[in-house]
Structures are given as structure tokens and as C-alpha cells.
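Protein 1 of 2
SEQ + STRUCT:
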Amino acid sequence: MLRSKLLKLLKENKGEYISGQKLSDQLNVSRTAIWKHINELKNEGYQIEAHHKLGYMLVSEPDLLIYEEVSPYLTTNFIGKNYIHKLVIDSTNNFAKEMASKVPDGTVIIAEEQTAGRGRLGRSWISQKGCGIWMSIILKPNIQPQEALNLTQVAAISVVKAIEEVFHVESKIKWPNDIILNNKKVCGILTEMSSEIDKINYVIIGIGVNVNCDNFPEELKGKATSLYLETNSKVDRKKLTASILNNLEFYYNAYLQKGFEYIRPICIEKSITIGRQIKVIANEGEIEGKAVNIDNNGSLVVETKEGKRLSIMSGDVSVRGLLDYV
């Protein structure tokens, strides 16, 4: 892709001028084409100085999660190879649904801002401009529809591992889809699926991470946080985005090849739910008890006060002493 190659050359010579003719020769295109792409990069926020004798010099890059900024940190074989970036979108999951049948496995939809971001059970998700990672990954696994429920937990451990790798901060998983840091929610995961009785058409994993956000609505203060607020330092969104995708491909492949048994120990180790009193709103109604395990199917095992053990495959879980459950 011409744009990526041009940007690579500018970055390699950052702070120094490189002539339009040299760029033209190396990329085997006209100087007019170079000029056109330079202007496109400027419009996206790249600060590029142009001198009629010296050529072009890259001064600074924008804080945008475009492919050219994230790809240097990507080590994936298929996730993120098709990468769609939007400045503003209603919801990356909505857009992913529209695109799912037309794009390859592993396609990533990422936006700087969502105007109608969604969480589980139709809850809204605040997605401020340029301060988070708001993305959806389209997957097309050859597994039974009921097995796709565990992909939420695959995504959850991928986010936890990425936060550890990039920032050396330990976060926990509130089963099955929330990432908790210092007892506040820093990330939510929304998994949606299109399937037949015995066949998955596609799965969409929506991931929303509060990265450098520093202001939350009053009703979320005390419940939501960001990596910036918890570490007191600005976070490199590009590295974290790539690390999440790298870990997602690794654990996704491991799950497909080895089953949930492979990732189960990590889910248990990173759980903030196990060992705590919880309340679950599930299809069976409201259940209260103690979370005691995650079984081999990925279900949460709850022991009621009567001593009965139940396996919960899905539901809205509240943990006593965490967020708003007292």
C-alpha cells in the first residue's frame, strides 16, 4: 500500500527532509502522487513540513489508531490484517454486523469515538473521542454456537494480559466480560453472534477500554476508571491496541485447538468473582450465592446458601463489595 510505504519512509527520516524526487523514485510513483498522499496525511493530523527545495519532513504523528500507527507492534497472522479505522462511528459492533459477511476472518473495526457505544443488555457505553480503545473484531470460528460463549472469556484474558505486558499493572476479570482495576471497571466486552442451529456465521467481539479518559459522568464516578487515572501516566494506545490483538489471536487459536481447558486456569487465576458473594440475574431468575469455580465449559459455578451448586452459562453478575453491589 503506497500510503503505508510513504509513511514508513517519512518515519525512518523523521526530523530530516527527504526530497520529493527521492520519495518518487523509491516508491516508483509520480511526485504528484507523493504530494497528494502527503496532503492526506496532513489532513489526518500528521505534522509534515514541506520545502520546495528540500522536500518533506515528518515532525510529529497524531494520536490516532490508524493501521500505519498500530501495525509496527502487531505480530498477528490474521487478526487485524484487514483493519478499518473510523474517526467517528455510532457503534463498532453495529458497523461490524453490516460488514461481517463481506470481510475476512479477523477483520478489526476501530474508532476514535462512538456516538452510540453499547454494553451488555443494551446499556450505553461512554466512548469519548481519542481517549480509549473502541474496537470490534470479526471472527468466523468452526465451532458449535454454544461454544462461542467462551470467546468472551478468551477476549477478557487477552485484555488482562495486554495490560500486564504493556504497563505492568494487574487487572482482574469480573466473569465473564468486565475488566476491573482497583475495584473499578476499566474495560467492557460485548460478544454478539450470528448463527444457524449448528453453524456460526460470525462472532463479533466488541472491546471498549478506558485508556486516557480523565472525566466520567457523575453517575459513573466510583464505578468506572481509566488506565491513566489508575497509573497517573498517559498510556500509549497504539501499543495497547496491538498487544490486545496479539494476545487475542494467541488465546483464540489456543482455545480452538485445545479447548477451554487450556485457558480455564488463567480465567480462574485472574477472576475477581471467585470466592465472593454474588448476585446473578439469569434466565432462571435471580440467584444469590458464592462464586466457587469456573467449570470446564466456562460456566460460573455458584453455591447457594442452601448448599446447592449451579452452573451459570450467562447472566448479569454483580459482585458484593464491587462497583454498586453492597
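Protein 2 of 2
SEQ + STRUCT:
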Amino acid sequence: MKYFSLFILISIFFTSCKSKFPEKEFIGNRSETLVNQDSLTIDFPKHYKGKILLVSFIFTNCPDICPLTTHNLQLIQQKVKENKIKNIAFAAISFDPERDTPTVLKNFAEVRNLNLVNYNLFTGKREAIKSLMETFHIVAIANDTTFTDDKQPVYFYTHTDRITLVDRDQNIRKSYRGSEINLEEIINDIKNGVL
């Protein structure tokens, strides 16, 4: 079991370092029902057809990578606004739907002062999340669970660290390390030719 866990961790590391997907990997035919922080239901990614979309996968109890990725999406969002780039949206999908309810996602957004004009946090049924994780090449492995005195589970995930760029026609075009972005590269990709 120890060697298997090590193999999984090494695989996640190398998978998360990958910067490009096959050119124009179409995902528009893989739509799933998700619920956002306001309890509104959408078909994802169909809902975003015609828009540039930046997607991350997070869980709100994450102590390190997810807060950095969320902050970096905020930086991209601000830079997009400064550059007057239109028809763009941001989505963070939780791979911990049992704990990340719409209310929890709303609180997460408020604590981080997220601008929810074109930024949504999503949860959904485990099967839908799993399907989207496969579509976006995301791996998340729950670590051992412990319990608090009042029987609440405590666990974390080892997971892929990625922000994915999807074009207006719903093709995956490029991915970036979510916790360490090159803001100029991403804005240039959006403005000059990736899309």
C-alpha cells in the first residue's frame, strides 16, 4: 500500500506539471449538472458556450494549494477586466461535494472577497464531479480520515494543481499550474491566439 501511494503521488506530480493538452480537446459533449454558490443549477460546461472559460478544481478545506489557485484566478479576473476582455468566465469546481455545499461555497467566496459577477463556485453529485474530473484530467485522492470529538470527519486531498483554459467553442486549449501562474502568459494566451 505504501508503494502504491507513492506511485499515485508521483503520478499526480507529473500530471500537474503538464502544461498543454492535445490541441483543441472538445469537451462540450460531456456536460454535467452542477449547483453554484447561490444554489442555481446549470449544465456545465454547456452553460458557458460562447465564452472563454478558466476552470479550477478545489476543496474549501484545503490548507494550501486551493487558496493559492483561488487567489490566482482572482488576479486573472482583475487583469482581464483591466484589459477589457469580454465574454469570459471563471469556475471553481469542488471535488469534495459532501462538505462543500452551496452555503459553504458562498462563505468561502465571501471570506476571500471573490467578485462573483463572472466567477462561480460549483458543487454537485459525486458522479457528476467525477465525470468532470476525468474530462479535465484532474486527480484527487482523499487522505486518511480522522474524526473530531463530535464525530465530524477530518480529511484532506492530494490533488492536481491546475487552471484550465477552455475556448468559446468548448475546447480545452491549455493548462497552467494553479498555485504558481505566469499572469502575463495567461493574458497573452487569451488575447493572442490560443483562442
